[in-house]
Write a structure and sequence with these properties.
- It is globular, with a radius of gyration of 24 Å.
- It has three domains: 148 residues, 3-Layer(bba) Sandwich (FAD/NAD(P)-binding domain), CATH 3.50.50; 114 residues, 3-Layer(bba) Sandwich (FAD/NAD(P)-binding domain); 120 residues, FAD/NAD-linked reductase, C-terminal dimerisation domain (Enolase-like, domain 1).
- 31% of the residues lie in helices and 24% in strands.
- The strands form five sheets. Strands 1, 2, 3, 4, 5, 6 and 16 form a seven-stranded mixed sheet that branches. The chain has a five-stranded antiparallel sheet with strand order 17-18-21-20-19, with helices on both faces. The protein has a four-stranded parallel sheet with strand order 10-9-8-14, covered by helices on one side.
- Strand 17 and strand 18 form a beta hairpin.
- Helix 3 crosses helix 4.
- The chain is an alpha/beta fold.
- The protein has 13 helices and 21 strands.
- The structure holds flavin-adenine dinucleotide.
- The site of flavin-adenine dinucleotide has 35 residues, from helix 1, helix 2, helix 3 and helix 8.
Length: 477
C-alpha cells in the first residue's frame, strides 16, 4: 500500500508525482503509455515539429526575395517523421523530470496497461498490476471526441499523422478549433488540398472575433477552403480514392470528398476504461471528472488534475493543477486552483495568440478601449517580410490597465506572452508604453499599441522608445 498513487504520466501526473514525493510521502506512478503522456508523445511536441517543417517550407520560398537562389523545396514525409521521432526522444531524454522522479524514490510503472478502479482505494491495470493507496490522483488526460455518425470509423485523428507514409493529396478537416486549424495549416503547407469544415459560425471560436475572421481570410488566401456554419454531417462513406462526407444544410444535402478525413471536434475525458463509478467518483455535465476548487473528486481521497477535469486543456495549466492536487492530497485542502492569465496560441500559418480577455468578454465587464497596430507598419515585420497581421490591445478605461491582447501574424505567441506578463502584473498602458522594449523586435509592437491606447485614455507617455518607428495617432473606438 502506497500513500499516494498517481495514475497517468502526462504533465499533470508527473507534476503531481514530484510534488507528492517532495512532500515526503510514499508515491507510486502508474501509466498506460510512455512517460510524458500526450504532451510529449502525441500532442504539442510532435505536432509542433510538423508545424516547424511547414514553416521551413514557407521560409524557403522567401529566400529569393532576399537574393538567395535554391531549388524549389521538396518534402520527404518519411524523413520528416524520422525527425519527429528524433525530437520526441531528445525532448524526453533531456527532460530532467524523469531523473527527478527516479531520484526521489518514486515507484514508476510505465507501459503498465490501462488502469481501472476495483474499489475506491485500489486500481488494477489491464496488464494485471494491482495497486492500493490511501490517496489517488487521476491524471489520465483526454481523447479526441468521436461522433455517433455512420462511417465515423473511416475518419482519422491528428494521431494518425504518425502512421501516414506520404502526404495525402487531399484532406477534409472537420472542426476548426486549435487542433483542427493546426492540422489544416500543416498539411496545406505540405501540399495537400485542404477543406476545413466548422459547424459553428466562425473558426477558432475561443479567440477574439477579429482574430478568427483574420485567420479565416488568411487560411483561405493560403489555399484552404474554409467552410463555416457548414451544417450537420450525415455520414462518411468509403470511395475508391478516399472518403466522402455527406452533410445537410438548410434542408439541402451536400458532399465533399478527400483522400483523408481528420475529425477534431473536441477533447473528452479519458475515463472510458477507468470505471470511476467503482470508486464513487462522479462526472460533471460535460462528462469530465467533477472536482472542487481543491481538485477533490466526489470521493474525498481521490483527486484529479489536467485534461481529465476539462479545465484549461494546456500543458502549463496541467502542471499547475497536478502540483495543487498533490499538495491537497498530502496536506489537506490548502491550495485552491486559481485561474491565472494564460497566454495561448498556435504555431499555425498565420500564427495567432491571446492573453487575457477577448474584446467581447472584456466589454461584458468593463468600459474598454482598444487599439490595433498592423504588422505592415512596424520595422521588424518589414525587415523580415512578414507584414501580415496585427496586435490588438484592450485596456480598462477606469484603471487604464491592460486586460487583453490578441495577435495574429509572425511570432504572435511571443508577443502575447509579453502582454500576459503585463496583464498579470496589473500594468497600466502608460507604464507599458514607457518600457524601452528592444528595437526592432516583434514584441515592440506592444509598446506601440500601448502608446495608442494611452493616447485614447488621455494619458501622457512622455519618452517612449518606439517613437523611433513613428507611433500612429490614437485610434478611437
Ligand atoms: C494536437 C495537440 C496539440 C497540442 N498542443 C499544445 C500546445 O502547443 N501547448 C499546450 O500547452 N498544450 C497543447 N495541447 C494540450 C496538451 O497536450 C494537454 O493539455 C496536456 O497533455 C494534458 O496533460 P495531462 O497530464 O492532463 O494528460 P496527458 O498528457 O494526456 O497524459 C495522460 C496520461 O495518462 C495515461 N493514461 C490514460 N488513461 C489511462 C489509464 N486508464 N490508466 C493508466 N494510464 C492512463 C496516458 O498514457 C498518459 O500518460 C495539445 C493537444 C493536442 C491534442
Amino acid at each position: 500500500m502506497t500513500d499516494v498513487l498517481v495514475v497517468g504520466a502526462g504533465p499533470a501526473g508527473v507534476a503531481a508525482t514530484l510534488r507528492a514525493a517532495d512532500l515526503g510521502v510514499r508515491t507510486t506512478l502508474v501509466t498506460s503509455g510512455e512517460f510524458g503522456g500526450m504532451a510529449a508523445n502525441d500532442g504539442p511536441v510532435p505536432v509542433r515539429t510538423l508545424a516547424h517543417a511547414g514553416r521551413l517550407l514557407r521560409d524557403a520560398r522567401q529566400l529569393s526575395q532576399y537574393g538567395i537562389t535554391v531549388n524549389e523545396p521538396v518534402l520527404n514525409y518519411s524523413t520528416l517523421l524520422g525527425r519527429v521521432r528524433e525530437v520526441v526522444t531528445e525532448v524526453r531524454t533531456k527532460s530532467s523530470l524523469r531523473q527527478q522522479i527516479d531520484s526521489s524514490g518514486v515507484t514508476v510503472h510505465e507501459n503498465a496497461g490501462t488502469a481501472r478502479f476495483v474499489d475506491s482505494n485500489t486500481i488494477e491495470t489491464s496488464a494485471g498490476l494491482r495497486l492500493s493507496a490511501d490517496r489517488i490522483i487521476i491524471c489520465t488526460g483526454g481523447a479526441s471526441r468521436r461522433l455517433p455518425i455512420p462511417g465515423f470509423e473511416l475518419t482519422s485523428t491528428h494521431s494518425d499523422a504518425w502512421a501516414l507514409t506520404s502526404i495525402p493529396p487531399s484532406m477534409i478537416v472537420v472542426g476548426a478549433g486549435a487542433t483542427g486549424v493546426q492540422v489544416a495549416s500543416i498539411f496545406n503547407a505540405f501540399g495537400s488540398r485542404v477543406q476545413l469544415f466548422e459547424a459553428g459560425p466562425r473558426i477558432l471560436v475561443t479567440e477574439d472575433a477579429d482574430i478568427s475572421s483574420a485567420a479565416a481570410l488568411a487560411l483561405q488566401h493560403s489555399g484552404i477552403a474554409v467552410h463555416e456554419n457548414f451544417g450537420a454531417i450525415d455520414s462518411f462513406e468509403k470511395t475508391s480514392a478516399g472518403v466522402r462526407m455527406t452533410f445537410t444544410k438548410g434542408g439541402h444535402r451536400f458532399d465533399a470528398e478527400a483522400t483523408l478525413v481528420v475529425v477534431a471536434v473536441g477533447w473528452v475525458a479519458e475515463t472510458s476504461s477507468l470505471d470511476v463509478a467503482a470508486a464513487g467518483i462522479e462526472l460533471n455535465e460535460r462528462k469530465f471528472l467533477k472536482v472542487d476548487e481543491y481538485l477533490r473528486t466526489s470521493a474525498p481521497h481521490v483527486f484529479a488534475a489536467g485534461d481529465i477535469t476539462g479545465h484549461f486543456m494546456l500543458v502549463p495549466q496541467a502542471i499547475q493543477a497536478g502540483w495543487a492536487a498533490a499538495t491537497n492530497a498530502v496536506q489537506g485542502p490548502t491550495m485552491p486552483l486559481v485561474d491565472q492569465v494564460s497566454p495561448m496560441g498556435s504555431f499555425t500559418e498565420p500564427e495567432y495568440a491571446q492573453a487575457g480577455l477577448t474584446e467581447a468578454k472584456a466589454r461584458e465587464a468593463y468600459d474598454v478601449v482598444t487599439s490595433i497596430v498592423h504588422f505592415d507598419v512596424t520595422t521588424r515585420t518589414i525587415i523580415d517580410g512578414r507584414t501580415f497581421g496585427f496586435c490588438k490591445l484592450i485596456a480598462d478605461r477606469k484603471t487604464c490597465r491592460v486586460i487583453g491582447c490578441h495577435v495574429i501574424g509572425e511570432r504572435a505567441v511571443d508577443i502575447a506572452e509579453v502582454a500576459a506578463i503585463a496583464i498579470a502584473a496589473g500594468m497600466r498602458v502608460d507604464d507599458l508604453a514607457q518600457l524601452p522594449l528592444a528595437y526592432p523586435t516583434y514584441g515592440g509592437i506592444l509598446a506601440r499599441a500601448a502608446v495608442m491606447t494611452a493616447g485614447q485614455l488621455g494619458l501622457s507617455v512622455g519618452w517612449q522608445a518606439h517613437r523611433a518607428e513613428g507611433v500612429p495617432l490614437a485610434k478611437h473606438r
